[in-house]
């Protein structure tokens, strides 16, 4: 969250109740729009054979192919977050948000396609979606229903994400399966990220930063959905 260039920055926690309510409404409305946009993008991509075939061909090019995809995704993520953290330019913020949602839709193509093939009715995806939203709602309630300070999670999450990234890269290079325990650990990490992002929304973001706030929540939500889906898929094998 870029606050350094906003000299009039005031955390929403210090605003009036009316301003807080409006900020929360805009943040979660934008999050909902992001989820709907993801569903639309994903539906189009999954029904575009050249995209599906291209993603699987890229994955089949060798153990380093998915590493390239991951690197490209991280680059797009960095740029999208940079755009979304523009403090005054709303079109740039929304462009960054849209770019990130589209990047997530592309990276989700292989796992969702496989999940769809595992059940005729797509029930695995529906189950993962319900579990993700239920856990997200519970974590959100914990933050807004208490005065707990979750700022301590920042350093834990930073270390955790670097360890997770290192483990994934090692798995790609040496060709070992990360397994169920890694997915469970990533669910815990994503849950911590939701707690921290929600705490930031409650205490640190400014009232006009609802777009980057929504993007932060969306990123954590998608990470949680990915690994809950992986767990369900592993149990269905």
UniProtKB/TrEMBL annotation:
<feature type="transmembrane region" description="Helical">
    <location>
        <begin position="122"/>
        <end position="144"/>
    </location>
</feature>
<feature type="transmembrane region" description="Helical">
    <location>
        <begin position="64"/>
        <end position="81"/>
    </location>
</feature>
<feature type="transmembrane region" description="Helical">
    <location>
        <begin position="180"/>
        <end position="198"/>
    </location>
</feature>
<feature type="transmembrane region" description="Helical">
    <location>
        <begin position="93"/>
        <end position="116"/>
    </location>
</feature>
<comment type="similarity">
    <text>Belongs to the BI1 family.</text>
</comment>
<dbReference type="InterPro" id="IPR006214">
    <property type="entry name" value="Bax_inhibitor_1-related"/>
</dbReference>
<protein>
    <recommendedName>
        <fullName>Modulator of FtsH protease</fullName>
    </recommendedName>
</protein>
<keyword id="KW-0472">Membrane</keyword>
<feature type="transmembrane region" description="Helical">
    <location>
        <begin position="210"/>
        <end position="229"/>
    </location>
</feature>
<feature type="transmembrane region" description="Helical">
    <location>
        <begin position="28"/>
        <end position="52"/>
    </location>
</feature>
<keyword id="KW-1133">Transmembrane helix</keyword>
<feature type="transmembrane region" description="Helical">
    <location>
        <begin position="156"/>
        <end position="174"/>
    </location>
</feature>
<dbReference type="Pfam" id="PF01027">
    <property type="entry name" value="Bax1-I"/>
</dbReference>
<dbReference type="GO" id="GO:0005886">
    <property type="term" value="C:plasma membrane"/>
</dbReference>
<keyword id="KW-0812">Transmembrane</keyword>
